[in-house]
Amino acid sequence: MALSFASLTNFSKMQSGVWYNGSITSRVAVRCCETGKEPPPKAKLQVGSPIIIVEAPKVIKTAASMPCLRANSGLIKPGDVGRIVSRKPKDLWAVRLSIGTYLLDGKYFKALELEE
């Protein structure tokens, strides 16, 4: 993925130690190029989906009304299985594990494929 940025700002005089022009012209252009390697979609994940932990997070945060942030001292290990309880902004998920409900980033788990 390639990104390009362009920015233009015009300053004409110094006022109180800061260059100032009354109006500042800014322009930002962002362009994203398609590549052949796309990350796997998380579209299969929804509330109630089974998941498996693939990497143990360094810190964990409880999903209680009064959350607690602490170091993961072996509570959550790779291979643990749980279910998604809810979705939070920015790829953050509330996951119910055997030891409780925790907020985990999507990079620490994947959908569990169940065979029928």
From TrEMBL:
GO BP of this protein: NADH dehydrogenase complex (plastoquinone) assembly
InterPro entries, sorted: CRR42-like
Pfam family, one: CRR42-like
Name of the protein described by the UniProt record: Protein CHLORORESPIRATORY REDUCTION 42, chloroplastic
Upper taxonomic lineage: Eukaryota, Viridiplantae, Streptophyta, Embryophyta, Tracheophyta
